[in-house]
Amino acid sequence: MGKYFIGVDLGGTNIAAGVVGDDHAVLARDKKKTKAAGGEERVIERIAKTVLGAIEAGEMDKSEIGGVGIGAPGAIDIDKGEVINAVNLRWNNYPLADVLQKELDLPVTVDNDVNVGTWGEAVAGAGRKYNDMLGIFVGTGIGGGLVIGGDLYHGHHHTAGEIGHTVILGDAPKGRRTLENVASRTSTANLLKSLILSNHASALTEITDGDLDNIRSGALKRAYESRDPLTVEMLHQTAEYVGIAIANTLTLLSLPCAVVGGGVTEALGEDWLKWVRKSFKTHVFPHELDDCPILASELGDDAGVVGAADLARRRLA
Amino acid sequence: MGKYFIGVDLGGTNIAAGVVGDDHAVLARDKKKTKAAGGEERVIERIAKTVLGAIEAGEMDKSEIGGVGIGAPGAIDIDKGEVINAVNLRWNNYPLADVLQKELDLPVTVDNDVNVGTWGEAVAGAGRKYNDMLGIFVGTGIGGGLVIGGDLYHGHHHTAGEIGHTVILGDAPKGRRTLENVASRTSTANLLKSLILSNHASALTEITDGDLDNIRSGALKRAYESRDPLTVEMLHQTAEYVGIAIANTLTLLSLPCAVVGGGVTEALGEDWLKWVRKSFKTHVFPHELDDCPILASELGDDAGVVGAADLARRRLA
């Protein structure tokens, strides 16, 4: 059995692979475009290339690799290694583990991409002191993962953790009710754009060179740090909503902590996270949970690779 | 070891005890007032009397009883058998299992009252075909319990299941944000009262003989069944909110079913529950969960006694 395991973060746009040691250190990496439009076989070929690229980058031999863990988007049947449904790859009931195992001649295990990110933070990141935690990632969308009793929790339909799709504004019009509807980067950027177009002044106009269709996390960070009033108001509102969803989850599950990551969180940092914490404290129940730590993710983009490699080590070794 | 187990439902007002066979049938019962104001020792004495009363009612001998399970309000440490905090009994860190064990000379186990009701429905009621479920009880307040992987789920602070305290109207004023704030019988009755006092016509005025401080489930049932427009509108709104909270829970945990009970649910029946289901379907994610059954509780007031007795059988036998 090899001493290293490979973690793969399979996204709709990019594939990242890393060779990971038993101390969770990423020793070597590779990254390629997914080219999902090319179909399943093309994507498999590109995953295999990325995995082999990472091994090569580490000047290792395939015999040193114990197995490959993949975080893939959508609902995953981890026992079968199947992607049940991944909208952005257009995959349905695709036997990813089996196909890739043949392609690479290495054992393969699969889990959901947000789950593996959560797992990375749980074993080697901000949640490593806790046996139970919520992982929540605020970026283009909002995803979540649950660690319960020291294991990832998948649920009956293999879709657990969909915190972005929980309703927090039940009286709002359709399309403005869920956490993702009102607090993802996409929804925040759209709302900012429409406010600016209806004559609200904002530093974002200058920061984006007037390209308001393209308000990315970096632009939000610059506007937030320059204390642009419109951006600050909007992002404190999203922090309020994120805090509510975390409070709801910890209230329902009596979890001892939450780890917050994703592009928006990383761009805005502690200044923003303290507003999330304030909202959490206001809304959580009972008071015993007031002091649950709401932690910033520590692994950033590596959370998926580290988590997937650790799942491979546990499941395949 | 005795062949029967006793389940006790300890409420702020009443104590109900039942002798339960291994087929979950309640063979004999007794009921007394809690008299919580009399202090802990008085309540213990009354629990013991109720337990012995149920044994006597069944013409059984104490030697036939294998143990006693109690559902108590508040946060419970099930390993220690302690009531950590029960507001309506004014108990803090009270070693209920130990004290009652000495008083009765029978082994005793304790769990939260809503948990034991959920467990009753899970083992002998509407949820018996499912290994995972949400139990939600809509009455004076709104409580919930979670069965995950065939076991009650308690969480890190022993307070899991507090669905009534999750926020579903994040933009509403304080006191109107949580499920319990807007869908318990208490909140529904208060809102109806204030609407009627501000000159909205309602059959409730006649049904309650003008005593609008006392709109109980029976009055709601009569007004709802007579299609009083104000009551119907209000109760369909509460059904919408209850459906949202169930959807949020099943979305987050990917559970295969929910069982809905409590005084309001039992009074209004399937006519009301179909509005809960409609809301659930609108709000749950992903579509794989659309068809999860939202079931009416089957055990009614017996759920707690049956669940507590079964927990005693499992933990003490």
Key features?
globular, 2 domains, Nucleotidyltransferase, domain 5, alpha/beta, homodimer, 22% strand, five-stranded mixed sheet, 317 residues
If you had to describe this structure to a student in words, what would you say it looks like?
The structure is a homodimer of 317-residue chains. Chain A has helices at 40-57, 96-104, 113-124, 179-183, 185-197, 204-207, 217-225, 229-253, 263-283, 303-316; strands at residues 4-10, 14-20, 26-33, 65-72, 75-77, 82-86, 91-94, 108-112, 133-138, 142-148, 151-152, 258-261, 294-296. Chain A contains ten helices and 13 strands. By secondary structure, chain A is α/β, with parallel strands linked by helices. The first copy, chain A, has two domains: 4-121 and 302-316, 2-Layer Sandwich (Nucleotidyltransferase, domain 5), CATH 3.30.420.40; 129-297, Nucleotidyltransferase, domain 5. In chain A, the strands form three sheets. The first copy, chain A, has a five-stranded mixed β-sheet. In chain A, strands 11-10-9-12-13 form a five-stranded mixed β-sheet, sandwiched between helices. In chain A, strands 5-6-7 form a three-stranded antiparallel β-sheet, covered by helices on one side. The interface between A and B is large, with 44 and 44 residues.
